[in-house]
Design a protein that fits this description.
The protein is of the alpha+beta class and 265 residues long. It is built from eight helices and 14 strands. It is 31% helix and 24% strand.
């Protein structure tokens, strides 16, 4: 039973965990695809996971508004608080049997959680209260660039082109000399940066601060002490942000910005 006595971070974690349980339970089954246009689609797993998440949020925070990727905006139009929900980030991966997916739940400007449904026997949930960040066992997240692994999102659109092309970053001699690239199609990689599993994450795009896909991961990285900016190096400000660079430390961020600004990109 989810009650209103839980903290926002606990609510976010409970909601993400509920969605992850659905995602894990339906994995490998034949799922109906719901066309969303432009090559994008949802599955019945996306819809079921979002319903499970919304059930938790409505029970714990009935006065809050919700923006769900699949169900849209719900709740009072004038609500001061809004939850951002991405029930299954990496739908294409999931639909073909891949387990590289995430479940994102974030209170705009506050607590957040990202679940890795297949991270361990029962999955993992990373959470933040907006100031601090913890792993599944309550241990503080500790970013580190030690792996040298940098995840780059190559999914369209590419609003930074021709000035910035992520594929150009991967081919830059300086990038290859200092990092090892990984190409992902899920924002779960942001949680990995916060948890020390990745050195950094880079994606092109517009303002991602209020995105159901990225808000939870951004919150985790910020609370964990990562350096988080747009691909132009500017602070992430709602309405003005451009893409995303989340790095485990200042040195890694500075090196990536040097490469991104290079005329070879």
């Amino acid at each position: 039973m989810i009650t209103q006595e839980l903290t926002d971070a606990e609510v976010a974690a409970a909601a993400a965990r509920a969605g992850a349980e659905v995602v894990r339970g339906l994995h490998g089954q034949e799922l109906e695809r719901i066309d969303k246009g432009a090559g994008d689609f949802a599955t019945t797993a996306d819809l079921a996971a979002e319903r499970a998440i919304l059930d938790v949020l409505r029970a714990a925070r009935p006065d809050d508004a919700i923006l769900g990727e699949e169900s849209g905006r719900q709740g009072a139009a004038g609500a001061e608080r809004q939850w951002l929900v991405d029930p299954l980030c990496g739908t294409l991966n999931y639909a073909v049997g891949d387990k590289l997916v995430g479940v994102n739940v974030a209170l705009r400007g506050g607590a957040a959680a990202v679940a890795d449904p297949f991270g361990g026997e029962d999955g993992q949930v990373f959470r933040t209260d907006g100031t601090r960040a913890w792993d599944q066992d309550g241990k503080p997240l500790a970013p580190t660039a030690a792996t040298g692994l940098v995840d780059v999102n190559l999914d369209p659109p590419f609003p930074g082109a021709p000035g910035f092309r992520a594929v150009g970053l991967l081919a830059h001699p300086g990038f290859v000399a200092g990092f090892r690239p990984r190409v992902v199609s899920t924002s779960l990689a942001l949680a990995w940066v916060a948890a020390g599993k990745r050195a950094a994450y880079v994606t092109d795009g517009g303002d991602l601060t209020g995105s159901v896909h990225f808000a939870a991961g951004i919150a985790l990285c910020r609370a964990a002490g990562c350096v988080v900016t747009g691909i132009d190096g500017a602070p992430l400000e709602a309405g003005r942000a451009r893409g995303l660079v989340a790095a485990a430390d200042a040195a890694t961020h500075a090196r990536l910005m040097e490469l991104i600004r290079s005329p070879q990109i």
